[in-house]
């Protein structure tokens, strides 16, 4: 599909893989609706980027998404650039052993937190924008109307310890790719999912040389984290290549993550399990995952979208734990 002159909706677009995707699409002549939390850098980005509108959205809020659809409809009417793609990049990870050594099961609140953003948020965003995409004028001899590009993770296939909820959410995204493609084939809409491994970020720069070397041992070639621009390049190709449909593409340089990784960011090696609360960006001891209140939930999602690290996706919270 030709990118120029089409509008693309990108959630989680204010940072990480989402932002790189937006920049790539804009360079190809697209218009972009940048969806992210009100506390994100979205407003300032929209002012500095061409053909970009910012719409504040919490993907766990159906009403937020409904309002975003109406705003995109109005914007398309003004620009004359029909919807060409839906790209849900918003995501989060909150690590937690399903059962810790004190026999405490992981909290249901933390499971819901991950599933509501990564799975429900993805599905709700896609389903609400699909009627608008299905009304786009067909393009080319095949009559293509657009594409949905979702983000899974290498954790969908080999999740690490503490990633039960995260792997479940990303595995579900991978699993729904083919049936969604089959549902939408009659409308000329394709569905592609990308499953990245670890990608570079501001927070990976904080890791010690020892930790970086440990992570590199799990990598094949290239022996480094992926770059956001490399993810965005694949999104662009997925949009342009009409034969990519109903497929999950791994983007990992042959990396297969081990069952456990030990990482400490400004924390002592003895810390049994670590997470980050965006209230003060300090490590929090978590024998069992703490239930976030509403304020923490938004802040953690915002923080994690800016500083991705071990959980293989652009938008999640770093973690560190010793299961013993």
TrEMBL record:
Annotated ranges, domain Ketoreductase: 6-197
UniProt cross-references to Pfam families, sorted A to Z: adh_short
Coiled-coil zones: none
Entry keywords, A to Z: NADP, Oxidoreductase
Molecular-function GO terms, alphabetical: oxidoreductase activity
Name of the molecule in the record: Ketoreductase domain-containing protein
